[in-house]
Amino acid sequence: MDLLDTLTAKGLRGEVPTREEALAVLATTDDELLDVVAAAGKVRRRWFGRRVKLNYLVNLKSGLCPEDCNYCSQRLGSKAEILKYTWLKSDQAAEAARAGVAGGAKRVCLVASGRGPTDRDIDRVTDTMAAIKDADPEVEICVCLGLLSDNQAERLKAAGADAYNHNLNTSESTYGDITTTHTYADRVDTVQKAHGAGLSACSGLIAGMGETDEDLVDVVFALRELGSDSVPVNFLIPFEGTPLAKEWNLTPQRCLRILAMVRFVNPDTEVRIAGGREVHLRSMQPLGLHIANSIFLGDYLTSEGQAGQADLDMIKDAGFEVEGAGEATLPRHRADIAAAASACGTAASSCGTAASACGSGGGCGPCGGHAHEEAAVSEEPAVSADASDSADSFGSADSAASAGELRSDLVKVRLRGAGTELAPNA
Ligand code: SF4
Hints:
Elements: H1 3-13, H2 19-26, H3 33-48, E1 51-61, H4 90-102, E2 107-112, H5 119-135, E3 140-144, H6 152-158, E4 163-165, H7 175-178, H8 184-196, E5 200-202, E6 205-207, H9 213-226, E7 230-235, H10 252-265, E8 270-273, H11 277-281, H12 285-289, E9 294-296, H13 308-317, E10 321-322, H14 332-344, H15 355-358, H16 369-377
This protein binds iron/sulfur cluster.
Function: Catalyzes the conversion of dethiobiotin (DTB) to biotin by the insertion of a sulfur atom into dethiobiotin via a radical-based mechanism.
Catalytic activity: (4R,5S)-dethiobiotin + (sulfur carrier)-SH + 2 reduced [2Fe-2S]-[ferredoxin] + 2 S-adenosyl-L-methionine = (sulfur carrier)-H + biotin + 2 5'-deoxyadenosine + 2 L-methionine + 2 oxidized [2Fe-2S]-[ferredoxin]
Family: Belongs to the radical SAM superfamily. Biotin synthase family.
């Protein structure tokens, strides 16, 4: 059985491939690309059907961050001409969120620049969440405020947050190359705090920062181990005025391979195409929908996305449908695991108990892959799985042909929506 048959069969069973198999996906050639997308598409349809979850970003506080993340337009010393403003008022943030929900978003992501929130900041976000949920009680809220201190995740959970986003971004071994003001371990700690408080963990990566294939595979397996329910895959937006401004080393083909690898390692987890979708996938965006089951609607934190209507048209034209507020995103066994983790309140990585000892009835699946894999076998498919295609031979390939080529024409700073008087594009 060749690589793609193996990966498809494992994905349909909810099993994780080996590290070598994940690396082999990244080494496929352009001739094999459509076969890779088709294989990942079968896995995606098995667990998520043809649904696309829409998420909407509200940047509560923009720029002026004291941290030095090299990829970030809001970093210390950034010369990127982005919007800079301090905390939006609750009604301003709720108004921005409403635009996203009206456009079809079922999750609103409340983000603030900075190392981490103060307790006063948690109060602010609590008020904002109340204003959003007053207008639309069904909307999911994910909060992204940086590194969390003790009890802050619990406060956010009690205030109605559904999820917390904190990305690992890159592998542990290269983390020090992109940030010096905090560590990979700090990031893992915050994801664990969020998960331990019963928040759904949203944690992902950034590709295109000069990392190796091994780095990408390392971080994706680390995210799997952490029990992330949602994995945003960002493609670096090389903002002028940041240290990575010249890191134009992604192609649409490379992005699709990365998405496919992430999908095979996370067959039943939400995989989201995040920042850089328009910049790097460009006209290949619809193929990304065959692999990922989630995207952002409209603009990003500090850069413009394509118009929200263009996102909706793309989804429809590609034969997919927007996931409704009443539809569960995760397959039932994954949702049960998340609920169990919430009920027992145990941090994913620190829970060493067997499922039966947890007392939650569902098992602490995020502690490792096995509980989830066993559950996956008995899960009814979201749609019937189709037969595996065969694939041709695999050789190494390099499609990162645009390295060093400046495409700053593709990066547009966001000057509308949250923090401005202008309407958002959702
Ligand atoms: S990623 Fe977050 S912590 Fe890092 S510089 Fe940007 S806003 Fe600050």
